[in-house]
């Protein structure tokens, strides 16, 4: 149990910090009028709680509480009614709970607020921990929004820059974690990565071999965009059991650090068995934690394109047949709707190969729209649009493919 006076003090301090910050508006918006519980999930430090707090009208702020505060170590389910009491005493309109999944039984409180028609916002950085309770006790009562580090458009707003090759180069180097954009300290990205692996993944998942988990994380950062099989990864990383490799990869996906995308295949069974490609939630985070000193710029660009697609689409695959490859195909409503090829720079050596891969993907998947993205070239080749990545990123990829 926790004393209400201590709780009031923690709340006052946590809420003070917020007022001092200069904040930009995000592309994601919070549906304030909805009467469902609103859940914002995403990788750590990407701006989840700020998104909610900034969205609430200034004359009706919410009562914010972050459960990672060590002073809340003794908070238990029986303490939740104190939050309602403090909310009313302080004249707040709603309750906003950060990383609440650490308190067992939180979903019972969530449900009771919902039943009383009172507003609750929740943020979390672990997909499965949240979804377990959401899926059972709160089915149909919540709406979930996924948030990512800043997009290129948000980066421009934050840095007060204009769109173009020069500002895209800055984004390409710095990525989208708001605090990193402020401090530009690579150690921040290393500490963040390590903290997610050791504190979130290893502790929550009870992993005793933390070294193997970190090695896997570094391996994925160093091999963004390259296909690999679980067994090959196991042997490279000296992890004996393939099952362990698969579990660890799942945990890394749950923490929103990486997505492992499958190869396109009409057969689901083949799709599962084929090699996967990993993409990181923030390419600058991957670079800071990578062992690959050659700095593969082409794959990094591919990672940015992947993220831009991922903001709009959940199902993204790569395409490969016996003699050609295409970086991404995008699924929407059970249909592949688009194919995207990414190439740093088109020249007489690679042009035919890149076009062939894109056309093969379009033909085989029956996707109706394809594009070839480059660092700075723009053209129309053989009926295929060629565009610089920065320009393509100025609109949501859903708009580009004409779906909503
Ligand atoms: N819209 C924004 N404009 C400017 N800075 C922002 C914005 N959103 C977040 N930040 C910065 O990023 C930091 C992290 O934001 P926030 O605490 O909301 O992230 P979070 O995803 O809730 O983190 P955690 O998962 O650790 O709880 C903030 O301290 C703030 O400095």
From TrEMBL:
Superkingdom in the source lineage: Bacteria
Domain DUF4143 intervals: 199-344
InterPro entries per the UniProt record, alphabetical: AAA_14 (IPR041682), DUF4143 (IPR025420), P-loop_NTPase (IPR027417)
Domain AAA, residue spans: 35-156
SUPFAM superfamilies cross-referenced by the UniProt entry: P-loop containing nucleoside triphosphate hydrolases
Any one Gene Ontology molecular-function term assigned to this protein's record: ATP binding
Pfam family, one: AAA_14
Protein source organism: Algoriphagus taiwanensis
Keywords per UniProt: ATP-binding, Nucleotide-binding
Protein name in UniProt: ATP-binding protein
């Amino acid at each position: 149990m926790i004393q209400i006076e201590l709780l009031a003090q923690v709340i006052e301090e946590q809420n003070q910090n917020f007022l001092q910050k200069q904040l930009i508006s995000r592309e994601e918006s919070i549906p304030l009028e909805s009467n469902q519980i609103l859940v914002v999930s995403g990788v750590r430090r990407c701006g989840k709680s700020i998104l909610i707090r900034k969205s609430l009208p200034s004359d009706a702020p919410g009562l914010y509480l972050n459960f990672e505060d060590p002073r809340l170590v003794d908070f238990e389910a029986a303490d939740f009614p104190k939050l309602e009491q403090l909310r009313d005493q302080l004249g707040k309109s709603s309750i906003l709970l950060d990383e609440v999944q650490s308190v067992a039984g939180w979903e019972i409180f969530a449900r009771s607020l919902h039943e009383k028609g009172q507003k609750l916002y929740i943020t979390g950085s672990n997909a499965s921990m949240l979804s377990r309770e959401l899926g059972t006790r709160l089915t149909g009562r919540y709406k979930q929004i996924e948030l990512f580090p800043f997009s290129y458009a948000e980066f421009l707003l934050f840095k007060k820059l204009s769109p173009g090759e020069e500002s895209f180069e800055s984004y390409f180097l710095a990525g989208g974690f708001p605090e990193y954009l402020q401090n530009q300290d690579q150690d921040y990205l290393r500490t963040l990565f390590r903290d997610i692996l050791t504190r979130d993944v290893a502790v929550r998942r009870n992993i005793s071999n933390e070294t193997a988990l970190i090695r896997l994380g570094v391996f994925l950062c160093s091999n963004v965009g390259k296909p690999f099989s679980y067994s090959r990864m196991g042997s490279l990383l000296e992890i004996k059991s393939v099952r362990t490799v698969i579990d660890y990869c799942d945990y890394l996906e749950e923490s929103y650090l990486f997505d492992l995308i499958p190869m396109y295949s009409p057969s689901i069974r083949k799709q599962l068995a084929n090699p996967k490609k990993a993409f990181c939630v923030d390419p600058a985070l991957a670079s800071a934690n990578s062992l690959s000193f050659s700095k593969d710029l082409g794959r990094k660009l591919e990672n940015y394109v992947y993220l831009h697609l991922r903001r709009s689409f959940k199902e993204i695959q790569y395409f490969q047949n016996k003699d050609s490859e295409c970086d991404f195909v995008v699924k929407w409503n059970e249909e592949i709707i688009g194919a995207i090829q990414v190439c740093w720079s088109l020249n007489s050596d690679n042009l035919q190969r890149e076009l062939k891969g894109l056309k093969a993907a379009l033909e085989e998947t029956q996707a109706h729209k394809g594009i070839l993205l480059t660092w700075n070239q723009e053209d129309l080749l053989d009926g295929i649009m060629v565009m610089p990545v920065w320009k393509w990123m100025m609109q949501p990829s859903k708009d580009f493919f004409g779906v909503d």
